[in-house]
Structures are given as structure tokens and as C-alpha cells.
Amino acid sequence: MPTPTLPITPDFSTAKQALTATRQFSALPAEAAEALVRQMIQRNYDSGQIICLEGEPGEHVWFVEKGWVKGVRTASDGREQAALFLHDGDTFGAEAVFSRSAYPVTVTALEKVHAWAVQGPTLISLAERYPALALACLEQLSARVMYYVQLVEDLGLRSVQARMAHTLLNYAELREGQLIIPRRQWTTLDEMATRLGTVRDVLSRALKALESEGILRLERNQIVVLDPKKLLERGKV
Questions:
Q1: d(CA 133, CA 148)
Q2: Are residues 111 and 139 in the same domain?
Q3: Do residue 125 and residue 143 come from a single domain?
Q4: Residue 6: which pLDDT band, with cuts at 50, 70 and 90?
């Protein structure tokens, strides 16, 4: 597995900011937060660099300070299903650490990523010492379970167009009174298709169909939602 860029001298104030940006850990008591921050190791990754591999023993939990990563599950025939897309304020790896098992997905940096890693045994030891930290970890794991339940529902019960509509709404941002979905450099049709469990051609047709109906407008750097109500309806099909 490729090794990450060498860590720089730890800046614990920056580590604390990364920790408090993670919703489940934002309200930790000062003593617990300080103990955890002191164990966080800075890691920087380049675009395309693998952070952890599916099937490898779960040894670390990561807190994403800046940048996007994706988690992919690979079938025996080589087909990929994107399971996670995470960014600033998200965390991953806890499923493997607390179950003392292997990482369930391969996590790759989609762009330059700044993150903080905590060794699994260290996090478990701290969770045993600080009940508030244990509850924060439990809340994060529970949120991840609910996310996977939603993913199973999307893949098993929704059409491609419905999955796409649902995903677009989840990532829409309100800017100057208009809903838009930013298109980052790595947000290609192939990447979106992998995420939605389909292929490029099917996704392209679904997008063009929504555009022809006046629900979306596809632009170079963003997707503009012209009719949020209709898009919401399509997400329920």
C-alpha cells in the first residue's frame, strides 16, 4: 500500500479544530478532547493515493480535516461500488477498529487531503477511560449504520433516476436563492455512475431526461436545480 506523505510537526491546535469539526466529537469534555488530540497524528495524501485497503486489518481511525475521500467495495469480478464519499468533518475506520476486523472498503483521496489518524488500540483505551468519548464513538458508528441502511434501500429499491435525484438533493447547496450541486474536478460521469451503482451511459441518459423536462440544468462546473419539488418527487420513485 502506498505510504502517506511524511507528517509534519504536530500542531495540536489544528488537530483540535479537526476534532471539533466532527459533529459527534464536537461537544467532548475538555479533558477527553485534550487526551484524544494528543494522540492524533497528521497525515497528508495526494489525489489518487490510497489511505486504507479493503481487507487489511483495521489499525487506525481517521478524522478528515480538509479534502474529499471515497470508500469503494470491490467485487470478485472487479466491479466497484462506491460506499462512502466523505469530506471535512467526517471520520472513517472506526467500524474496523471497534469490531477488531478488516477495513470494509478501500478509501482513496479524491484530491489533496489533510487528515488526522489515531491508532485503534489507543482510541479504544481512551474510550474505556472517558465515557463521553465512548458515547461519541457509538453515535458516529450508529450514524454510519443508518447511512448503510439508506444505501441498501437506494440500491435495492430505487431506480437509477431516483437514486440520482436523491443524491443530488442531499448534496445541493443554496446559493443566492438557487439550489446548485458543485461539480468538482473528480466528479466525472464515471465516478458518479460508480457511486450510484450503474454505468456511464445509463446515468447520462437519466441526467439528460431530467434536463429535457426542465428539472435540472447541466453546466460545466455545477448542476442547477430548476424545479426542486419535481426532483424530490423523482427521488421517491
A1: 23
A2: yes
A3: yes
A4: very low
